[in-house]
C-alpha cells in the first residue's frame, strides 16, 4: 500500500477515520478538505447544537474523550476539539490539505464500456483494479480558485450528507420566495453566518422556520425563541410530525434495551436471513409492536397536548434514523408562546409571509420577515455531482425508487477503485464510520476481496428490501442501518476474518446493549475503568 496514491475527500468524522486506518497500514493518503478546519459538519452547525448521541457512543474506539468533558451530550465546540485532538494524535492532520475543494473526478485508463461489463468489482475484485490500469483524476481548486489535477489509485469519498447541497422546496410560479418581500435562507447559510451575525439577523424579526427535525428545533427553539422571546414568537411550519424526544429513557427504561441489542434484532427481518431467523422475526413481530407502543406511551405525553404525536411509530423513526433530541426548554417555550407550531402539508409564499394550508382546512397567513428552510440536504446529489462522466453519474446514486446502491454501505458495485464513507446513517455515526474505515483499510490492504458484481448487487437489493419494509414509502433512501447495526457490524467483522461475538455467554451477547454501557460508563468509578474499545464495540 505504501506506493499507492490514495485520495480522501473530506476531513470530517469519516475522512479522519479513513485516513487514520490507512496510515496504520503504511499508506499515506492525501485528504482534500474544502474548509479550513477538521470536523466537517460540526464546524458549521447552529451555535446551540449539541450531540444527540450519548458521548460514549460518539467516541473512536482507540481515543477516549478527555476527562474534562463530562456532559452526556457535549456541545459542537467540544465535538470539534475532540476531532481535532484525534487528527493530531494519529498524524492525520499532516495529511490534510485545507482549502482544497474537489470539483469533480474522472476515471482514466479503462474504457467505460469495459468498466460497465466487468463481472468482478474493479475487474479483479481488488482495491486497485486490473494491473493498475485505471486511475482517478481529481480536479482540485484552492482558495484562490486555481485548479490542479491530482491522480489517485483509489478515492475515498467522505463528503458528508448534511451539508453542501440543500434540499429546498419547489413551488408553482408566483408562489415561491420570489413573491415574498422578506428574506429566505437555508439552515446551512444560517449556520455559516456564525452565532453573532445570525442572532443579529433574527433579532426583533418575525421568523418562520420550515421543518421539524434537528436543525429546525435547534434554530427555532434554542436560538430564535431565546433571542426574540414572546415579543416576536417564532413559527415552525411542520409538515411531518417527528419523534423529538427529551432523552433515551422511556418510563425509566433505556430505549436501547428495547431496540438496540441482539435480542431486539431478532424481532426484525434481516437481509440474507435464513429460515430460522425469518420465523423468529415473524413470530416475535408483536413484541416489536409492544416495545414501540411502550416507549411511545411515554414520549407522547407532552406531544399530545400540542397535537404533535407523530403518525408513524417510534420503531419506524429509529429504522429511518429520524429521531431528534429536544433542545432544553422546548416545551416550556411552546407553553410560554415564544414558539408557535403550524401544522401544514403544503405552504407557499406571498408578499407578507408564508401561507400555510391548515390541517383542518382553511389556509392562513404567517406574517414573516425571515423564512429559514430547515429542510435538510441532498447528500445523494452531492455524490452524483462528484463524477464528470455521464455513465458514473447515471449509476452513482440509483433512482428515486432505490436506495443509493452501496455494498456494505461503502462500495458501489459498478464504480471501481472508490469507496463512500458516511452516506448511510446510524444512531451513532462516528462509530459506524470508524468500523467502515477499518473494514475499508483491511480490504485495501489485500485482507479480502469483493464478491462478484452480481453478488454485490444482490446484497444491495436485500438491504434495500429491508429498508423499504421498515422505513415506509418516503424514507428508505436515508439508508439507515440504525436497527440492524449489530447484524451489519457482524458482516463487516466476518469480511475481516474477526469473530463478531464479543461477549462470553450466549445470554450476555443477546442482551448486551448500549444502555448497559451507558450506565456503566457514567458511574464515576466505571468512567475511569471502562476501556474505550468496549464503548465502541458494544452496539
Ligand atoms: C445538526 C446536526 C447534528 C448531528 N448530530 C449527530 C449526533 O448526535 N449523532 C450522530 O451520530 N450524528 C449526528 N449528525 C450526523 C453527522 O453528520 C455525523 O455524525 C458525522 O459528523 C458525519 O461526518 P462525515 O465525515 O461523514 O461528514 P461531514 O461531517 O459532513 O464532513 C464532510 C467533509 O467533507 C468536506 N467536503 C465536502 N465536499 C467536498 C469537496 N468536494 N472537496 C473537499 N472537501 C469536501 C466538507 O467540507 C466536510 O468537512 C448530526 C448532523 C447534523 C447536521
UniProtKB/TrEMBL annotation:
Cofactor: FAD
Keyword terms of this UniProt record: FAD, Flavoprotein, Monooxygenase, NADP, Oxidoreductase
The keyword Transmembrane is annotated on this UniProt entry: no
Enzyme class: oxidoreductase
Keyword set includes Oxidoreductase: yes
EC number: 1.-.-.-
SUPFAM superfamilies: FAD/NAD(P)-binding domain
GO molecular function: flavin adenine dinucleotide binding; N,N-dimethylaniline monooxygenase activity; NADP binding
Family matches, as PANTHER family: DIMETHYLANILINE MONOOXYGENASE
Similarity field: Belongs to the FMO family.
Protein name in the entry: Flavin-containing monooxygenase
Organism: Zea mays (Maize)
